[in-house]
Design brief:
Bound molecules: 2,5-anhydro-1,6-di-O-phosphono-D-glucitol, manganese (II) ion
Largest sheet: 8 strands, mixed
Order of helices and strands: HHEEHEEEEEEEEEHEHEHEEH
Number of helices: 7
Shape: globular
Helix content: 25-40%
Structural class: alpha/beta
Distance between the termini: 68 Å
Strand order of the largest sheet: 4-3-5-6-7-8-9-10
Oligomer: single chain
Length: about 350
Amino acid sequence: IELPFPSTEILTLTRHILSEQIRLGAAATGDLTLLINAIEFTSKFIASNVRKARLINLSVPHLSPRPLCCIDNWLLISVGLAGDTNVQGEEQKKLDVLSNDIMVNSLRASRKTAVLISEELDHAVVIEEEYKGKYCVVFDPLDGSSNIDAGVNVGTIFGIYKVRQGSEGTIDDVLRPGSEMVAAGYTMYGSSANLVLSTGNGVNGYTLDPSLGEFVLTHPDIKIPPRGKIYSFNEGNSLYFHPPTINYLNSIKYPPAGKSPYSARYVGSMVADVHRTLLYGGIFGYPDDKKSKNGKLRLLYEAFPMAFLTEQAGGIATTGTRRILDIVPTTIHERSSVYLGSRDDVLDVITFYQAEA
Ligand code: AHG
Ligand code: MN
Ligand code: MN
Ligand code: MN
């Protein structure tokens, strides 16, 4: 009997993007590779904290204000509200604030960034001269954070722009359509950590091998099935939905005779809902409605990166009336209506909007 040997040809994320860089030839300087490496590190760091969060609540007496570059002493992990105090009267740090600090520190230290936009920070972080690079990163450090206490999947979403020619790195370098991103991705922290990335040449998925501490290519060239059987909406908002949303949902729940209705799946973490949509197909939606006139999801660090991945995987991402990646943001925390997923499913939604127009 021949014993199976483990493969000695493992395609790690670093190796994979390096080969991509070589394929691009002289155009690539290696800076983007180093930046993606820094993001990969933050994913490992956040994954490890997400896993520990329910287990430990290490504490140190009083740490604020914490210098940006110091992350050694913060080990006070809490799933409570930021700024809360625990029963011992200690300051607690919500996991999404902690994840934000991890990302800001690491991205700044990479020396490859000029501007950072985070869901957790009201203002843009403009990197000082000494550390300045030529990329801008927009990110949601911990997406789905309302799910943490229940042990449900959460994630990190990111998008990367290159500063415009001649720019020193200002907010205008990120107030650009999502189609101008050079890369986008997310890491989902679930039963394993999955990093899904596109640098504009298809979508690849990597899984963290905890024994190696490396993200390994496990899902090469992800393509969304052209039609799915799953819909993913917070239907609790039905009271507020506009007619095209209601009519579309009715069409998949009450199909003509002979066709089966769609299955409902809604995690409430965009990362998890989009991850499933990319792999299984179907549609994810968080539309604008009578209550939220621009929907809920944020354009720069939720809608754009997910729309970028969806299109790169062969799907469609729309507000209902226009392509998401064409929107020019005017403010960094702007929101947008979102429908994304399998081509034919999203085309159906668009048809319902056209019928209403
Ligand atoms: P975040 O935790 O980063 O603030 O994002 C939450 C978002 C997104 O993950 C999810 O799709 C959506 O909120 C869920 O909203 P509802 O609870 O309204 O369904
Ligand atoms: Mn989010
Ligand atoms: Mn978040
Ligand atoms: Mn939030």
